[in-house]
Structures are given as C-alpha cells and as structure tokens.
C-alpha cells in the first residue's frame, strides 16, 4: 500500500505528467462537445473519415518541408482534413451517393494514399527519425508545454464560437428546414461545424492518433446521449465523460511504462459508453427491461380486471371467492394498490378508475 501511495504521489507531482494530463483532459472535453454535433447530425463516421484523411497531409508536409516540427505536420493535416470534409460535402450534394457512402470513399481513398506516402517516406534516408508512425496511434508522451498552450487557446476560441452560434447550431441540428425558413444559412452553419470538428481532430492526432481519434470523438457523445434529451446537458455530460477518459487514461498509462496512452484513453471512454448503455435511467438496457416487465405485469392485471368487470356486470357484484377464483393473491393486491378494484361492505367492485383504463384498451 505504501508503495502504491508513493507511486501515485510521484505521478501527480511529476511536471511532465501534469502537462500531458492537462492536454489529454482538455482534448477529451472538446472532442466530447464537438462529437455531439457529429452524432446529432447522424454523421458518426465523419470523424473517422476526416481523421484518416489527415494522414497524407502529415506525410506531404514532411516531404515538402523536410521539417520534423509538429506544428508544420499538423498544418498539413489540417489542410487535408478540410479538403476531405469538403469532398464529403460536395460528393453528397452533387451526386446521388448517400452520406455514409461518401464518408467511406473519402476514408479509404485518403487513408490508402497516406499509407502509400508513409511507406515511401520511410525509405528515404533519415525519414524514420521524423516519427511519422506515431501519428497512426498517437504518442502523448511527446506533448510539450507549448503544444498544450496552443490546445488551450484554440479550445477556448472554439467554445466562444459555439456560444456565439449556439442558437443557430441548435436549430440546425434538430430542424434544418426550419433553420433555413427563418433565415439562417444552413451551408455556413454546416461548414463552420465541420471546421470545428476538423480542428479538434487535428489537435488530437499527436495524442491519440489517426486511427483512434474518431473513437474519442464519438464515445463520450454516445454515452451522454443515453442520459438526456437536452442538448446543453448532453454537451456538458459529453465534456465530463471525455475529460475523465483523457485524465484516467493518462494516469493508467503513467503507472505502467508498457501501456500506450491513446488506446487507454479510448478504452476508458468505451467503459463510459458501456456503463451508460446499461444503466442510463431511460434509455439504458436495465431501465428498459424494468419498464418492459412493468408494462407486461400491468397488461396482465388489465386482463384480470376485464374478467372481473364482465363477471360484475353479469351478477351486479363480486364476492370474495369470485375474485379469488379470477386472480392470484399477488394480482389481487396489485389491482387494489392501483385502485382499480375496491371493496364495499362484503362485495368487490371495479372502480371508476379501473373502468376508465378498460375503456382505453
């Protein structure tokens, strides 16, 4: 126990860990928020397609400049991410292809091109030293204080944009036709939303990588969607789930030298999704199972109540032995508790509440 406490104390006093943890926590919060937009637009593959589309941009930026600077490589990723998102948009609008088909085409085309360029770059002398491989699965340990500072500034600006266009985003997500009818520019809102998603994907490539960033984008949003119907609350929950995933994944990774940070963050996010799918109060599997059992029992009670009503109509009243013959003691108690069956003197009667339920069915 003493050794465990010492290790935890070392982790939380290590400056490098604190920088990385801050970066992954902020990234998780922002991907959670922006992932809600992708989920509600029913474009869950958008993050996957854009993240894979950034790979050729990273490699081309290196081949063109010969620089290993992270900012230059991410700038190349940003350019190709925007090109990929515009390609998806134009392909969907100007052809008869559906959105999921366009996403799949852009994903496979750009990622295949990126892998081809990566193979070529690795055969050039000294190219392996650029560390281009790390952008496939991420390497959070390479984060610098300047990288986290840039992430914080851009995240803050994105939050300002979301707040400024909150009304437009909300109307567009839930009713694009109404948004257009009241004078909002759907094209501008859609492009702005996509650019924000591209930005956060590019910022997360260094930490989580091309392959896994889409999971971090969608998992917190999918988990948050199970708990609420409110957009603002959904964004808040997604930010909490994403930030917690980033922080806990970093802590687990720091406690073991053999565990990569990016995959651990995604695994923790997946745990939040699994927990939400099971235990969310309305949409969770457990809650829906309870509701189904409750409705099934209620339906059985109504069938028994119907028999009681038919017998009462035939003989004006129900004796205790009649009720006991028609239903089990448990069902009788349920009918009484629901106030569907009442007792007057020595006879039983179907109440007005019970008759109302019977008329409804």
Layout of SSEs?
Layout: H1 2-13, H2 15-40, H3 46-53, H4 55-65, H5 70-94, H6 99-122, H7 134-137, H8 145-164, H9 166-174, H10 176-181, H11 186-204, H12 213-225, H13 231-254, H14 261-279, H15 285-315, H16 320-326, H17 329-337, E1 341-344, E2 347-350, H18 352-360
Helix pairs in contact: 2-8, 2-11, 2-12, 2-13, 3-5, 3-6, 3-12, 4-5, 4-6, 5-6, 5-11, 12-13, 12-14, 13-14, 15-18
Brief overview:
This protein is mostly helical.
Biggest pleated sheet? 2 strands, antiparallel
Unreliable residue stretches: none
Give the overall form.
Answer: elongated
- In CATH terms, what is the fold-level topology of the largest domain? ABC transporter involved in vitamin B12 uptake, BtuC
CATH superfamily of the largest domain: ABC transporter involved in vitamin B12 uptake, BtuC
Radius of gyration: 29 Å
Task: Quickly give the structural class.
Answer: mainly alpha
Secondary-structure element series = HHHHHHHHHHHHHHHHHEEH
Return the CATH architecture of the largest domain.
Orthogonal Bundle
Going across the biggest sheet, name each strand in turn: 1-2
Tell me roughly what share of residues is in helical segments. Answer: over 70%
What number of structural domains do the residues give? 2
Mean pLDDT score: 85
Our count of helices gives 18
Report the end-to-end length measured between terminal Cα atoms: 63 Å
Q: In total, how many beta strands?
A: 2
- Given this structure, which CATH class of the largest domain is correct? Mainly Alpha
């Amino acid at each position: 126990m003493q050794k465990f406490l010492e290790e935890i104390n070392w982790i939380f006093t290590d400056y490098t860990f604190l920088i990385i943890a801050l970066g992954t926590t902020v990234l998780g919060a922002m991907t959670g928020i922006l992932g809600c937009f992708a989920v509600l637009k029913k474009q869950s593959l958008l993050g996957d397609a854009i993240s894979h589309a950034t790979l050729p941009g990273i490699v081309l930026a290196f081949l063109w400049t010969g620089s290993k600077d992270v900012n230059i490589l991410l700038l190349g990723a940003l350019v190709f991410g925007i090109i990929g998102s515009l390609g998806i948009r134009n392909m969907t609008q100007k052809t008869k292809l559906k959105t999921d088909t366009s996403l799949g085409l852009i994903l496979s085309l750009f990622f295949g091109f990126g892998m081809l360029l990566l193979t070529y770059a690795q055969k050039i002398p000294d190219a392996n030293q650029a560390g281009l491989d790390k952008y496939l699965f991420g390497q959070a340990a390479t984060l610098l204080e300047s990288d986290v500072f840039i992430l914080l500034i851009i995240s803050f600006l994105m939050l300002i944009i979301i707040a400024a266009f909150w009304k437009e985003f909300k109307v567009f997500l839930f009713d694009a036709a109404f948004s257009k009818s009241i004078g909002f520019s759907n094209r501008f809102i859609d492009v702005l939303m996509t650019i924000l998603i591209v930005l956060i994907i590019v910022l997360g490539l260094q930490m989580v990588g091309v392959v896994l960033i889409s999971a971090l984008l969608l998992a917190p949003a999918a988990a948050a969607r199970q708990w609420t119907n409110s957009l603002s609350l959904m964004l808040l929950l997604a930010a909490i789930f994403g930030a917690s995933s980033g922080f806990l994944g970093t802590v687990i990774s720091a406690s073991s030298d053999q565990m990569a940070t990016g995959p651990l963050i995604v695994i923790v996010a997946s745990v939040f999704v699994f927990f939400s799918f099971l235990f969310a109060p309305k949409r969770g599997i457990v809650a829906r199972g309870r509701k189904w059992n409750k409705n099934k029992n209620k339906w059985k009670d109504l069938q028994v109540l119907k028999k009681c009503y038919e017998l009462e109509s035939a003989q004006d009243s129900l004796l205790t032995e009649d009720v006991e013959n028609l239903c089990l003691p448990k069902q009788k108690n349920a009918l009484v508790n629901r106030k569907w069956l009442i007792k007057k003197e020595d006879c039983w009667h179907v109440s007005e509440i019970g008759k109302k339920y019977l008329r409804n069915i």
